[in-house]
Recover the amino acids of this structure.
């Protein structure tokens, strides 16, 4: 694809995080100890805080929309779907407090994105630990202007196969609200402590666990096909171990006890982002999912994200110009119903 051809379409990043400016006193809505909150320094840097503990150093685009848009211009990204940092989910809090917290976070995300409404798509968060409050919150947020909802892949031992969480997903389908699923709260232990192994090993495993669990539990059978569902980080380990899961389904009755189809039969029921960081890995992901089921995702603005948005897609072997256009923006435009953005996925795949 030539530069002229590429610049004629929109580059849309579906996986980009925000931590709006929330003070320690405001964070006491969620917990009496005050967490999480954002400490901004005079030199323009910041620190994500968990109570009195420093959680992670961060930079201005995370909370400053003007800096974010300037960075997007430099990086060649036209549109970002902006979702909260998973530290902000609040799933362990009392549901009433979590509901009030989500209202605050969602209002701040809306205000943040309102600074560049053609460039920034706000995604809300919900108190997923309570079905009624989660449904009420997502409906209210969608009416206020949020373009989707961002959820974690589990709440303690409750995964997306949980009856109430499945009911929430059905509600999102009924309301036409796209759902972005992000892994979080990874397993710990001494073996996972060094070298960010919780992020490098735990996050991909969490997402594979979620997708495979939904397939084998028959959850996709209970969800409307209209549901727009996307898993971050390329679906974790799912695509690369799908053959193992299918083999087990065919040869062990205990594996297929609750699922009428093998796991590979459900790849058309969800999307994934492209954040796999290796063109060879992306090639396999596209082969497994189909070119209309993968969307650009960078994990902006964190250091573990793709530093040159779209470079893995552009360098992926064997993709046609039309398929690259889908991955860079066309699929996301359809996922978020963005009129006039990207390229028509259905037409290019027909």
């Amino acid at each position: 694809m030539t530069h002229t051809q590429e610049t004629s379409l929109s580059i849309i990043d579906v996986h980009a995080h925000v931590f709006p400016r929330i003070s320690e006193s405001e964070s006491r809505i969620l917990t009496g100890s005050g967490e999480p909150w954002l400490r901004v320094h005079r030199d323009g840097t910041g620190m994500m805080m968990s109570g009195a503990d420093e959680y992670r150093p961060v930079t201005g685009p995370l909370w400053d929309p003007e800096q974010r848009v300037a960075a997007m211009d430099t990086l060649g990204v036209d549109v970002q779907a902006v979702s909260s940092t998973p530290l902000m989910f609040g799933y362990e809090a009392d549901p009433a407090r979590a509901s009030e917290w989500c209202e605050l976070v969602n209002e701040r995300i809306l205000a943040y994105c309102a600074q560049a409404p053609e460039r920034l798509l706000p995604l809300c968060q919900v108190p997923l630990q309570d079905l009624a409050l989660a449904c009420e919150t997502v409906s209210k947020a969608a009416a206020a202007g949020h373009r989707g909802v961002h959820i974690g892949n589990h709440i303690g031992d409750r995964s997306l196969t949980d009856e109430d969480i499945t009911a929430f997903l059905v509600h999102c389908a009924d309301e036409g609200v796209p759902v972005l699923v992000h892994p979080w709260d990874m397993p710990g232990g001494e073996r996972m402590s060094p070298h960010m192994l919780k992020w490098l090993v735990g996050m991909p495993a969490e997402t594979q666990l979620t997708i495979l669990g939904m397939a084998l539990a028959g959850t996709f059978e209970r969800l409307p096909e209209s549901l727009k569902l996307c898993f971050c980080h390329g679906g974790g380990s799912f695509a690369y171990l799908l053959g193992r899961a299918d083999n087990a389904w065919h040869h062990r009755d205990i594996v297929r006890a609750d699922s009428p189809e093998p796991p590979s039969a459900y790849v058309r029921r969800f999307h994934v982002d492209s954040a796999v960081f290796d063109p060879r890995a992306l090639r396999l992901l596209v082969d497994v999912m189909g070119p209309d089921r993968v969307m650009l995702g960078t994990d902006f603005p964190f250091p573990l994200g793709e530093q040159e948005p779209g470079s893995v897609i552009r360098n992926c072997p064997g993709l046609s110009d039309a398929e690259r256009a889908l991955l860079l923006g066309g699929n996301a435009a359809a996922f978020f119903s963005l009129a006039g953005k990207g390229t028509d996925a259905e037409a290019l795949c027909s």
